[in-house]
Recover the amino acids of this structure.
């Protein structure tokens, strides 16, 4: 089985993604802008499909864009690609960057555990209580 890897899209705060990349030593972590397979304007469906087709890793996509779960094309791409997807709930947008950073770091071990072991594919990271719940 391929190694688990985490991919942060452009909707996710770059400083937090880079912080996780520095902090996480067990897994590969990448931010969209640092991946030569993608342009800055690559559509979500292309990103999702490319990650799903990558046999080197079992990719987990993280985003602050919950709309991906509501758009038919993106939802179909997620389903077809077989990757796991975590998105930030509404409360995250009411926080400043410092609060987002410490809360996300606090949530990270749970995100990794769920990505490794949970059968569900789509999850919401709630900002208020840091609960991670299956979605859809």
């Amino acid at each position: 089985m391929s190694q688990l890897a985490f991919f942060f899209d452009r909707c996710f705060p770059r400083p937090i993604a880079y912080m996780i990349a520095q902090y996480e030593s067990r897994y590969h972590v990448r931010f969209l802008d640092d991946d030569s397979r993608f342009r800055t304007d690559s559509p979500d469906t292309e990103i999702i499909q490319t990650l799903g087709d990558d046999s080197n890793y079992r990719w987990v996509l993280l985003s602050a864009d919950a709309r991906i779960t509501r758009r038919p094309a993106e939802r179909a791409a997620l389903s077809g690609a077989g990757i796991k997807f975590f998105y930030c709930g509404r409360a995250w947008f009411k926080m400043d960057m410092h609060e987002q950073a410490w809360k996300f770091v606090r949530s990270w071990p749970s995100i990794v555990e769920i990505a490794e072991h949970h059968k569900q594919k789509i999850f919401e990271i709630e900002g208020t209580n840091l609960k991670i719940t299956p979605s859809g």
